[in-house]
């Protein structure tokens, strides 16, 4: 019998992760504890229209996120090679994390059955998590609509200060 994954909850510790980034290093939740706020946005795939728009919105506000004391990471099941091309093509100033086995996607509860044109498949439900300096989830944005999302996340961070 498969165990149900516990969904992350606001105020509770965020699930730890260990993923390879586009800069070639392994990134873990632990390395940010006590240091900085983390914006972890999960997206379905590199170079698709919605995902590109979302990444570019975070890119355009990257300086403001830095000023707000936050580090941004995009996470998807795509490979590091795919992420590198995507990052380069759109001049993203933050790293993308590869989760090819969807282990982190599952831990964060964003790996869902999707229904596209009557065809069911598993994939990432676009979601964003803000993890505070203590490693706890400050807020969750499930089923993200791309338009205005990066601004909404930034406004939340500014209100936290």
Provide key terms for this protein.
single chain; 161 residues; alpha+beta; Glutaredoxin; two-stranded antiparallel sheet; 9 strands; 28% helix
Quick structural gist:
This protein is of the alpha+beta class.
Topology of this structure?
Elements: E1 18-21, E2 26-28, E3 37-42, H1 49-60, H2 62-67, E4 70-76, H3 80-89, E5 96-98, H4 103-107, E6 111-116, E7 119-124, E8 127-131, E9 137-141, H5 149-160
Parallel strand pairs: 3-4, 4-5
Antiparallel strand pairs: 1-2, 1-5, 3-8, 6-7, 8-9
Number of helices: 5
Low-confidence stretches: none
Instruction: Describe the sheet with the most strands.
Output: 7 strands, mixed
Beta-strand fraction estimate: 25-35%
Shape: globular
CATH hierarchy, class: Alpha Beta
Structural Rg: 15 Å
Which strand order does the major sheet show? 2-1-5-4-3-8-9
- In round numbers, the mean pLDDT is 93
Give a description of the structure.
The chain has 161 residues and is α+β, with helices and mostly antiparallel strands. The chain has a single domain, classed as 3-Layer(aba) Sandwich (Glutaredoxin). Helices cover 28% and strands 28% of the residues. The chain has five helices and nine strands. The protein has helices at 49-60, 62-67, 80-89, 103-107, 149-160; strands at 18-21, 26-28, 37-42, 70-76, 96-98, 111-116, 119-124, 127-131, 137-141. The strands form two sheets. Strands 2-1-5-4-3-8-9 form a seven-stranded mixed beta sheet. It has a two-stranded antiparallel sheet with strand order 6-7. A hairpin with a 2-residue loop joins β6 (111-116) and β7 (119-124). It is globular and about 40 Å long. The protein starts with 17 loop residues before the first strand and ends with a helix. The mean pLDDT is 93.
């Amino acid at each position: 019998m498969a165990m149900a994954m516990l969904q992350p909850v606001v105020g509770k510790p965020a699930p730890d992760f260990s993923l390879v980034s586009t800069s070639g290093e392994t990134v873990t939740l632990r390395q940010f504890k006590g240091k900085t706020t983390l914006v972890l946005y999960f997206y379905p795939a590199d170079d698709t229209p919605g995902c590109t728009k979302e990444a570019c919105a975070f890119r355009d506000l990257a300086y403001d996120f830095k000023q707000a004391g936050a580090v941004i990471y995009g996470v998807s099941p795509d490979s590091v090679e795919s992420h590198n091309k995507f990052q380069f093509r759109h001049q993203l100033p933050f790293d993308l994390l590869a989760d090819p086995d969807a282990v982190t996607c599952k831990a964060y509860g964003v790996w869902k059955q999707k229904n596209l044109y009557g065809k069911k498949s598993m994939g990432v439900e676009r979601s964003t998590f803000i993890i505070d300096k203590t490693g706890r989830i400050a807020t969750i944005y499930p089923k993200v609509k791309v338009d205005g999302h990066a601004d909404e996340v930034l406004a939340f961070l500014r209100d936290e200060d």
